[in-house]
């Protein structure tokens, strides 16, 4: 989709089409006291950019879908940093039993494990804990390091990346959340945990958008 800044006249035309559409080019021209020919370039830009649609013998009308898409784009282009939540962290040697308790206490779906340097070491999801609980193991003796998804298999995101990138990573990898990280040591491939982004984060961002007064 082409993203362009509209001129003052194009904004005026858009407003007229919004209020009066479907409306013919001649009617728009009359409202602006301009000739039909003078309007042609502006109408072409508005049509090509997707703001308005034209139907032969009907006229121009406002493209609502385009508006929704534009608003959605606005939300998804916000940076992860503005939306990230606090990560719930456990040590690598925490027992599966304690991790389950932590999950309930903090009311989250995913825990992150860190090593003794505080670097991200693992992801522990609900299913990881359920799987571990299915066997007859002693959950108080079993450390989360045995059952977690480990580095370098963890999908991460940087604070400067966008919610769109976060959403894509979660959908493509079939996961519910992403640890937001800063590089600790590029060579060693180690990361410091600075937050988390979940599918709920994306949903919340959309709800906020719906609450905002639409333009
Ligand atoms: P749930 O277990 O509640 O369905 P997920 O769909 O997020 O939660 O997790 C599914 C699997 O993917 C689990 O084994 C989990 O350890 C792993 N996982 C979750 N988040 C990530 C991530 N950011 N990077 C890599 N693996 C992950």
From TrEMBL:
Residues 83-141, 148-212 form the CBS domain. Pfam families: CBS (PF00571), HTH_11 (PF08279). The keyword Ribosomal protein does not apply. It comes from Neobacillus bataviensis. InterPro entries: CBS_dom, CBS_dom_sf, Diverse_CBS-Domain, HTH_11, UCP026546_HTH-CBS, WH-like_DNA-bd_sf, WH_DNA-bd_sf. The keyword Transport does not apply. Keywords: CBS domain. This is CBS domain-containing protein.
């Amino acid at each position: 989709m082409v993203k362009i800044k509209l001129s003052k006249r194009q904004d005026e035309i858009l407003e007229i089409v919004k209020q009066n559409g479907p409306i013919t080019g001649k009617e728009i021209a009359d409202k602006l006291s301009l000739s039909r020919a003078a309007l042609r370039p502006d109408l072409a830009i508005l049509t090509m950019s997707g703001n308005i649609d034209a139907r032969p013998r009907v006229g121009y009308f406002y493209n609502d879908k385009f508006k929704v898409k534009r608003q959605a784009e606005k939300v998804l282009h916000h940076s992860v940093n503005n939306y990230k939540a606090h990560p719930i962290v456990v040590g690598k040697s925490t027992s599966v039993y304690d991790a389950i308790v932590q999950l309930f206490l903090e009311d989250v779906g995913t825990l992150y494990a860190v090593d003794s340097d505080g670097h991200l070491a693992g992801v522990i999801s609900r299913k990881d804990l359920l799987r571990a609980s299915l066997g007859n193991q002693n959950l108080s003796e079993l450390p989360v390091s045995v059952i977690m998804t480990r580095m370098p298999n963890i999908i991460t995101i940087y604070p400067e990346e966008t919610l769109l990138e976060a959403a894509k990573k979660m959908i493509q990898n079939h996961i519910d959340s992403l640890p937001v990280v800063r590089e600790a040591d590029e060579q060693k491939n180690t990361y410091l945990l600075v937050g988390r982004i979940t599918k709920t984060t994306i949903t919340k961002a959309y709800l906020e958008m719906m609450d905002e007064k639409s333009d």
